[in-house]
Write a structure and sequence with these properties.
By secondary structure, the protein is an alpha/beta fold. Helix content is 43%, strand content 25%. The chain contains 6 helices and 6 strands, in the order βββαβαβαααβα. A hairpin with a 3-residue loop joins β1 and β2. α1 runs parallel beside α2.
Amino acid sequence: MSERWIGIVVASDKLTIVDAEVPASGPLVRQGDHSWSLQKGDRAAAYRVMHQQVADYVRENCICRAVVKASAVSLGGTKKAHLEAAELRGVVIAAASISARTETIAKNHISRTFGERKTDEYLADDNFWSEELTGERLRVGSREAAMVLLAARNAQ
């Protein structure tokens, strides 16, 4: 039996969310592919709005599990955008965890444990995605959010 999961990738001011039915094996069934931007203005108020939006989405869509792409070390040094993304990631994790099992998974962990290739090679492979995902076509920019779902399922 499949469960409804969401994969989330956070940038400094936006989320990419892939909502899918995740069976024990076989392709994911895409239910949604969303990009949500943080509202302009006061960040504290914007975080409150995003927290509510994520919490509502998880509850209303009966999401069982939320998998968030973890922060990564920046080789070029930590910039403000990196710190803002970390703040927003914390807001998203807190919101999703109200109703769903929530975890983070790092891109470098996926590269080490998922298959024979690096994560970026899977993200660029159209044939891989046609085999691993059914339902409406996934935007190329949303593949990383779907990849965290595949990796989390394989880690079970």
